[in-house]
Amino acid sequence: MGNNNMFRDSLIIGLALFCMFFGAGNLIFPPYLGNIVGKEFLIALFGFLLTGVGLPVIAIIACAKIDGSFENMALRVSKPFMVVATTAIILAIGPIIAIPRTASTAFEIGVQTLAPSVPQGLVIVVYFLIALLFVLRPSKLVNILGKIVTPILLVALIAMFFKGMVTPIGESVSLNASGVFTDAFKEGYNTMDALAGVLFGTVIISAVKKRGYVGQKDTMKVTVGAGIVAGLGLVGVYWGLMYLGSQTSGLGVEMARTELLVHIANETFGQAGLYLLSITAILACVTTAITLLITGANFFTDLSKGKVSYNVNAVILTVISALLALNNVEQIVALAGPILEIMYPVVMVLIAVALLNDKIKSDFVVKVTVYVTLVFSIITTFSSMFGWDALTDVLAYIPMQSSGFGWIIPAVLTFMLVTLSLQLRKKPS
Question: Are residue 262 and residue 397 in the same domain, yes or no?
Fold first, then answer.
């Protein structure tokens, strides 16, 4: 196929991928970072973009490299691991974190802003009843809404960016924040787009092949192009939001993530800005929740080989999501932190393995490296959560541990040592 067709197809698929990654939940993290780091927001932006943009795009490319999906990545460890790991990701981007967060975000940004007297419980019940109605009777309306709402939200954000550049909300001040890069890197985990990316890979590769690309080389070119398009879109949105957030750093008032976004919308366009943000955020959140509930219900129906029906799974996931959504966004983010700090290193290792798939011949090397990474992630997270000072002191001797990346050296050393050991065994005596 010609380069012009490749460019066009990369653009179309890339815009679709951008819409898949970009959700109302993603809006709340960059402004908050900008607010707490002030003038150092560019350092924070770099850290956030690595995990919030770079990793999701690389995840898609890794799937294309192995012409498969996350299941294929995880199978190099073992089939039971693949089932457990895929289930954990589906639960994380579904009823445990992402879906409840959509409901809480819709309430705090959409409803509470315009009608503060409406109780959260009532909103959550109505929100999930509407979502369940569409989940039990899947409709093209959800996709149509998504295609309309996302561009409107994007246009509103671009207008806010330009307004903030022409007439700043306030002055970015130096807050002498410590650990800016590390905290921003971890805040990027909260977008959960890397976890979604390893699942979206199958969808994107299928879309590429439907356009007539069958060879590995052409498939990779279009996928990489689509990833670049989606990545550039996300970089633009995140830069603008973090820049606006940095303009609020001089307020001296601590605000929750959703409150800050509402404040920015009000400061840029007043009441009209609040109405636009509220309506588009509610619609974007509910369409995302419906899509994730459908994905989760289909997964667990397949996992049970049809023994538990789609409708039953849909109802169970909806109820769990609704119960967790009764927490506010900050509580859900706090709950997500430890879960994502355990999951992300493992996913990063699996993505790296997929990218180097041709060069890593031994599944045993992959298995040991992944399990060592998992163990270190669990130990580090638990020692931090439960205040295990003695263990924390021991872990402090590991390079990069203080920055939250202590798993990297053990993973690399394990990979090298196991590979070397296998090579030595193969050599004739």
Answer: no
In this prediction the pTM is 0.87
Same domain, 334 and 428: no
CB neighbour burial string for 193-224, b if at least 16 within 10 angstroms, e if fewer: bbbbbbbbbebbbebbeebebeeeebbbbbbb
Domain enclosing residue 248, as ranges: 3-359
Q: List helix spans (H) across 95-215.
A: 98-105, 112-114, 120-136, 140-166, 180-187, 193-210
d(CA 391, CA 217): 48
More confident of the two residues 214 and 166: 166
Instruction: Give the pLDDT of residue 35.
Output: 92
Residue 319: which CATH number?
1.20.1740.10
Cβ burial of 296 (10 Å; 0-12, 13-18, 19+) is: buried
How many Å is the Cα radius of gyration of the chain? 22
Pair 249, 176: CB distance under 8 Å: no
The DSSP line for 222-285 is HHHHHHHHHHHHHHHHHHHHHHHHHTTTTS-----HHHHHHHHHHHHHHHHHHHHHHHHHHHHH
Asked whether the predicted pLDDT for residue 404 surpasses 80, the reply is no
Same domain, 249 and 385: no
Which of 157, 189, 168, 156 lies closest to 49 in space, CA to CA? 189
- Quick check: 41 and 33 in contact, CB under 8 A? yes
| Token code pair at residue 33 | 């970072």
Q: Which pLDDT belongs to residue 3? A: 63
One domain for residues 261 and 400: no
Kindly give the residue spans of alpha helices, DSSP state H, lying in 304-407: 310-324, 329-355, 363-385, 389-395
Q: How many CB atoms are located within 10 Å of the residue 2 CB?
A: 7
Amino acid at 70: F
383, 272: one domain? no
69/181 same-domain check:
yes
d(CA 349, CA 74): 10
Provide the mean pLDDT of the chain: 88
**Of the given ranges (148-152, 199-203, 244-248, 337-341), which has the lowest mean pLDDT?**
148-152
HSE of 304 in the Cβ direction (CA atoms, 13 Å)?
12
